[in-house]
Amino acid sequence: MFETLLAAFVLLFIVVDPIGVAAIFAALSHGSSLSEQRRIARNGVLLAAAILITFMLGGGTLLSMLGISIPAFRVAGGILLFILALDMIFARQSGLRATTLKEQKEATKRQDISVFPLAFPLIAGPGAMTTVLLMASAGHGAGVMAGLIGVVILVLALTLLALWFAPLIVRGLGETGINVVNRLLGLILSALAVQFILDGVRVGLGL
To answer: Alpha helix locations (H) across the chain?
Structure first.
């Protein structure tokens, strides 16, 4: 059980990428007071938690309704996460883990960015939602599922902490430092994504 929860924590932490989100949040909330930044961060993280936990609990039902097998979803999810890993390794932004240019322009016109783009797509984006569905699709018992929900809460708590101290993180690491961290995390994520694909192919083909 511990290994399952540890692997889930590492995977979700890398996909959510609190450090990268903090850097974007610092830019989007520049000029706001500290209390306002922390209010936006708190509301965004709470909404993201609701989205991810809902997807986790309803993931199996959703897949069944759509007629999608678990092996097929693991292969598809692994491919998506591998693309996400490439974005991190090459230090580029895409709609999978950040906002597009048009979304960034729209966000700058908003007074409250807690819902868009903070909660979605920065925190609970396609990559994070796919990850929690993959975590839940393994058919764990009630005890492990409770632990996985705890993992989601822990990762989002660390994300909230990173958002609260976003200016310090940006000043301390700088853009180069943040990119170096993201490249290292992306390398780990790419290996995890390939493992998802291999597991899905093996089970799907009955190997």
So the answer is: 2-16, 18-28, 34-66, 70-89, 101-108, 126-136, 142-164, 166-204
Count Cβ atoms below 10 Å from residue 145 Cβ, excluding itself.
Answer: 16
| Model confidence pLDDT, tens digit, residues 16-75 | 999 999 999 998 888 889 999 999 999 999 999 999 999 999 987 888 899 999 899 999
43-59 per-position pLDDT tens digit: 999 999 999 999 999 98
Of 15, 11, 36, the closest CA to residue 164 belongs to 36
CA 145 centroid distance within chain: 18
Q: Long-range contacts: 141-145, Cβ < 8 Å, 24+?
A: 143/1, 144/1, 144/4, 144/5, 145/56, 145/57
Give this prediction's pTM.
0.90
Give the Cα separation of 167 and 55 in Å (integer): 31
Q: Cβ atoms within 10 A of the Cβ of 42, count?
A: 14
